[in-house]
Specification:
Blueprint (H helix, E strand, L loop, with lengths): L11 H9 L12 H17 L6 E5 L5 H8 L3 E6 L2 H14 L4 E5 L2 H7 L4 E7 L8 H11 E12 L3 H14 L16 H11 L2 E11 L4 E5 L5 E7 L3
Parallel strand pairs: 1-2, 1-4, 2-3, 4-5
Antiparallel strand pairs: 5-8, 6-7, 6-8
Helix pairs in contact: 2-3, 5-6, 6-8
Length: about 240
């Protein structure tokens, strides 16, 4: 049984924001279009480092299950967790309608799950979530505890600098209207050096980093070496 303590590392305003949009998660032309567009890139990168076939994977902050569903369809036994009830219900409904194999969803805090099922997953993903919680380091520690020795933990988030403010907030939210205004708070963005410190303190070894770029004219995303705005990190728990 969860106690109220498991919900301390959550911003209620953030939960409400995504809950209000929950019914639009699986509309590829909605506010979540960027997630649908980048999902194949994320999935391919994860799969290239930690092949998902036959693996037990956890998607932390899964929202409507866009990545969770894709990992299950890649052969993984996937569990998606979130604290946004409406988003989880949308994820569960989509899994039923699409008959996605080997996927489950739970409303549970990652810290609570880490206490319940330590060292249980081959792969843990936490994508586009760290910049939405009060204490990102707590999430990192929980992910590190959940992964098996030798397993991989993947993070993606937003760098904190003038360029990321211009691109991720001014450009994406106010000029191009790719995201609803207020989606991100610049102060919550996380520099790679800060995330690296949290990973190191949690016992995770920093293995690979990639940046994600976007061309508004072609509407195309791609992975690159430029981590100045969006970036992805692969870490590993030592054996």
């Amino acid at each position: 049984m969860q106690t109220s303590a498991t919900h301390t590392n959550v911003d209620q305003a953030e939960l409400a924001k995504f809950s209000d949009l929950a019914h639009r998660w699986w509309d590829p032309e909605s506010e979540f279009r960027p997630l649908h567009q980048i999902n194949p890139l994320r999935l391919e990168w994860i799969n290239s480092i930690a092949p998902l076939q036959g693996k037990k994977v956890l998607d932390v902050g899964c929202g409507g299950g866009i990545l969770t569903d894709a990992m299950a369809r890649s052969g993984a036994q996937a569990l998606g967790i979130d604290l946004a009830t409406k988003s989880l219900k949308v994820a569960q409904l989509h899994a039923l309608e699409a008959q996605t194999p080997n996927v489950q969803y739970r409303e549970v805090a990652v810290e609570a799950l880490a206490a319940e099922q330590p060292a249980s997953f081959d792969v843990v993903t936490c994508m586009e979530m760290l910049e939405h919680v009060p204490d990102p380091s707590s999430i990192v520690r929980a992910c590190a505890r959940l992964v098996k020795p030798g397993g991989y933990v993947f993070f993606s988030t937003l760098n904190r600098n003038a360029k990321s403010f211009l691109f991720a907030i001014v450009g994406a939210e106010y000029v191009l209207n790719m995201l609803p205004r207020g989606t991100h708070e610049y102060a919550k963005f996380i520099r790679p050096s800060e995330l690296a410190r949290d990973c190191r303190e949690a016992g995770l070894e920093w293995q690979h980093t990639r940046g994600m770029e976007y061309n508004p004219l072609t509407r195309r995303y791609w992975l690159s070496a430029d981590t100045s705005v969006n970036y992805l990190v692969a870490t590993q728990r030592p054996l």
